[in-house]
Design a protein that fits this description.
about 190 residues; alpha+beta; seven-stranded antiparallel sheet; 2 helices; about 45% strand; elongated; disordered N terminus
Length: about 190
């Protein structure tokens, strides 16, 4: 019995800390039920990624789109995508959400120019949440200098500030492939 408990504990540690996908079992879960939950969690597809794409880039401004890539067409419930930017080089001016956004969470539709973070946390339209590519919206930046800028997703991990959630076995699960996240470089002077 103790061996089974330790094995389950080891697997839970792997799932929670190793895969980047939290496993939060219901209360009073037996050892067998916990092992079944862990096996189901391993079958969860984590092939969803977030990307930043330059739409326009002039000497004065840049417009960037946040795209969610969903190759296995999973039904996405919500997305939190915080984007880092260097506030001494660019200033966030505007967030324009895509039409498939149902609701932005309070405080998750803002630009923090002091700390260099665009905060986006949204629920998706259930009729449009399982496409292979989903636009979350566009961010407009104004440039303060001609330096090249790197934008990146902030704190992408299970309990962090960037994640993609689906409903799975009655709970919400993060299915973001954090290894696929790459920074976007914006050229400072295009003239």
């Amino acid at each position: 019995m103790m061996k089974r408990f330790l094995a389950a504990l080891s697997i839970v540690s792997l799932v929670v800390f190793g895969s980047g996908c939290a496993l939060l079992p219901k209360k009073n879960t037996s050892g067998d039920a916990l092992i079944k939950l862990i096996e189901a969690e391993r079958n969860l597809k984590k092939d969803v990624s977030l990307t930043l794409q330059t739409l326009s880039n002039t000497a004065e401004t840049s417009e960037v789109e946040i795209l969610l890539k969903n190759p296995s067409l999973q039904k996405i419930e919500s997305v939190r995508a915080w984007v880092n930017f260097p506030p001494k080089i660019v200033e966030g001016k505007n967030i324009a959400f895509a039409e498939n956004i149902v609701l932005a969470a309070p405080g998750e539709d803002t630009i923090d120019n002091e700390n260099g973070i665009v905060k986006i946390g949204v629920s998706l339209d259930p009729q449009k949440n399982s496409a292979s590519e989903i636009s979350l919206g566009k961010i407009t930046f104004s440039k303060k200098s001609s330096e090249t800028v790197a934008l990146s997703f902030f704190d992408a991990r299970t309990d962090g500030h960037t994640f993609v959630l689906i409903e799975y076995n009655g709970d919400l699960r993060n299915i973001l492939d954090t290894e696929s996240l790459e920074p976007l470089m914006i050229l400072g002077n295009t003239e």
